[in-house]
Amino acid sequence: MQSDNSLVAVQVGGNANVGGDIDIGNPLASVDFQGDVQIAGDTGQVAIDSHVTIGADPVEFPVPEVARFRSYAKGPVLTASLYSGSGMTLANALIRAGSNPTFTGNGSVTIQGVLFISAPNIVTFDKQVALQGLIVAEGNVLSPGTNAIRFQGNFASGGYPPDPMFDAIRPEQGSSILAPGFALSFTGNFSSVNGVMAASSLYFWGNASAVIKGTMISYSQDATFVEGNIAMSFDRVGMVEIPAGFDLLRVLDYQPASYTIVQWKTNRLHSRRGRPRFGRMPRVNVVAWSRCRRPPFLATVGRFDARKTQSAKS
Asked: Which pLDDT value is given to residue 287?
C-alpha cells in the first residue's frame, strides 16, 4: 500500500488473517488493528513488528494498455439501458458510451471472449455473472469521473470457451478485468478471479471465498474497502508472468525519415589505430518501455480498509 494521503495505511475493524507480509510506502503511516489480526501466523504486536514494513520501496503501478482490445469486440453492440430476462450470453460484445446499462432478472449473464466498455458508462450487473474471458473498459485513470462497473450478484471468472471464434483473443492471458478508469465493486459473492484486476478503485462486500490467479491493483488515492466475511487466496503458481494488457515492451525502430535534426553535436571519435577522426552525430533522446516488474498480490495507491472477518494469503 502506498497510502500517501492517509497516515492510517491499513485499518482492520474485525478479525483478519493475512498469509504474507504488508509493505507500506508512506514512511509516516501506521496500521490500526481493532480486531484479532494474524499475519503470516503471528498475532498482536509480534505480527506488526515482524511482518509490517513502514517506508517500503515505492510500489510500481503499471497502467494497462486497453485500446487494442477494442478490435476483438466484433460481436453485439449494446445500447439499451435495461436488459432483463432469464439469461443472456455476450460474446465479444461492446457496450456503447453513455448506455449505462443494468442487467437484471433471473438467470445469469455469461460473458465470453471480451466485453469492451466504452466511457463514460455505469454498468450494473444485478444478477449472477460468469466471465469466460475478460472485461476491458476504456477511461482516464487520472480522471475516472463516475465511470463504474458494479457486480451485485455472484461472480466467477475462468478461461475462454473452446469455440474457434475466440481463437484470436485466446493468446491474451493472465488478466480478468482491466478498467483503470472505472470504479469496480463487488457486493455479492465471488468465488474465482482468473487473472489481474486493475481498476480506478476497488470495493468488496459480502460473504465470499475466492481464489485469485493474479494481482488486484487500485489506482485511487481513496481507500480500498473489504467488508463482510471474505477470504482471498492468491494463487501465484497459476499467475501469468506478464498479463494481457501489461506487455509494455517497446522496441526502438530506427526510421531516419521520421525525424528532423535540430541541433548538432561534434564528437571526437577514435579509430582502431588511435588516430582521431571527427564526425557529426545528432543528439537523440530515446524513451523506451521496459517489462513490468511482477507486482504484489494487492497493490493500492490509497489505504486499505478491512472490516469484519477477512483472510488473504498467497
From this structure: 31
Distance CA 265, CA 270 (A): 16
Are 212 and 191 in contact by the 8 Å Cβ rule? The answer is: no
Would residue 126 count as lying in a domain? Answer: yes
Statement to judge: residues 26 and 175 lie in one domain: no
Asked whether residue 178 falls in the same domain as residue 299, the answer is yes
Number of other residues whose CB lies within 10 A of the CB of residue 39: 23
Closest CA to 24 of 39, 43, 42, 4: 4
pLDDT of residue 57 exceeding 80, the answer is yes
Question: Does one domain contain both 92 and 157?
Answer: yes
| Structural domain boundaries, residue 39 | 8-54
What lies within 8 Å, CB to CB, of 197 at 6+ separation is: 176, 177, 184, 212, 214, 215, 216, 217
**Model confidence, pTM:** 0.77
Q: Specify whether 24 is located in the same domain as 159.
A: no
Q: How far apart are alpha carbons 57 and 50 in whole angstroms?
A: 17
Span 239-296, pLDDT tens digits = 888 899 987 665 556 667 766 655 544 444 443 444 433 333 333 333 322 333 444 5
Local confidence band at 91 (pLDDT 50, 70, 90 cut-offs): very high
Mean pLDDT of the chain: 80
Nearest alpha-carbon partner for 118 in 91, 141, 137: 137
